[in-house]
Every structure is written in C-alpha cells, then in structure tokens.
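During the reporting period the student researcher (J.K.) took over the structure-prediction task from the postdoctoral fellow and processed the backlog of single-chain submissions. One of the processed entries is reproduced below for the supervisory committee.
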Amino acid sequence: MRFLFSLLLLVSTITFGQKQEGFVGKLTYSVQIVDTGLQTMIPVREMVIYTNDTLLRIENETDQLGMQVVIKHMALNKSYLLLHTPVANYAIQTDHNTEKVDTFPYTFKKKFGRTKICGWKAKKLMVKHANFTEEMEFLYFKNLSVKYLNTLENFPGLPVKYYISSVDGTYLYQLTAIDRMDVEKDYFGIPSDFKKVTFDQFVDEMLIHKEQQEKERLKEE
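J.K. obtained the following structure tokens:
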C-alpha cells in the first residue's frame, strides 16, 4: 500500500485558474519529515523542478521507489512517471483529465505579514488539514502559479513552504533556490529505453514478475 500511495501522490492532479506571470527555470526544495521520532531515520532530501512554462520535469527521491522523475505537459494535463525497476524501465502514463477529482483536502485563510524566501517576498496562509493536529503556516509566492507543483491545487500562488501528509508522516517542503534559466527541451523527453505503460499495465507486470520469482523460489527449495 505504501508503494501504491507513493505513486498516486506523485502523479496526483493539479488545477489552476488565476492568471500569474510565467516562469522558466529551476526550483529546488528541501524535503524533511517533521515527526520527531523519524527525523534520524529519514534524511533531508531535495525535490528539483525544471520548467519551460509548458512542460515540467520533477525529480524526487523516495525510500520506496528511489529516484522518481515526472514529465508533465501542463496544457494537456498529461504526465509520465519514470521508474527504474528490476523488470524494466517504465514510463507510466497518466491522463489527469480522466481522473476523478477528490474534494480539496485543505482549508486556508490568508494571514497578515510577509517574509522573504530566496530573495522573493512570500505571503502567509494558515492551513488546516484533517491529518494536521493544528493549523500550519504555509508561505507562497503570489505572482507564480501553483501549477509548477504536482501535488497541490487551488492555492492562491506557488507554495514555497508547505506540508504534505503521507503514510510515513508529515513532510515539510521549503524552497531553497529559484533560478530563472533556459531549460533544453530534450530534458523533458522520455528516454528510448523506457517502456510506456498505463498504471494498470505497470501493476500487472509487477505482479507477474512477483509470481515468477515465487515459482523460482519454490523450485529451489
């Protein structure tokens, strides 16, 4: 279940409607768990996002799946999740237009005051979530869209300090660098050695591989 949750979290849909300035470049976030008992077990990691304002490349390292890369076309609302497995390299397709959209799990209210993140002015939100024991303070850039993230929706700008609840605990994401730069289009391509499959096809192939491994193990006993 943790494996499937990680996949679904990474490819979850986003929506956006307000007009904000475009961004081309690189966003770097630190990712750390805030549950005290797990902080020594789960190291601080990075999430790196590249965009040309039409395409996204999101690089994120996880315990369950190792390095994950999501390639997303924002206008078409379709994505590929690139995974290396013992069976093959997979590009798992997702058409977010056909997904069932759940109720937005956050409620928030704007809070007076601003602070600087990476030299940019960030505004404040007080955010509630069913899995938070108390309100959390989020920070966001008003002039950049939430569309550059792939796990949040409906916020009034790009979150630059925010919390995500998972089966492992609550993670804090904080922007550590923002770089305006040209990103080569090839960086958003699917490598030729990756097999394009749907999520269901991927699960079926993993189950077949598991069954084959079990048969081989029984033969050796």
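The committee noted the following: The longest helix spans residues 199-220.
J.K. will present the remaining backlog at the next meeting.
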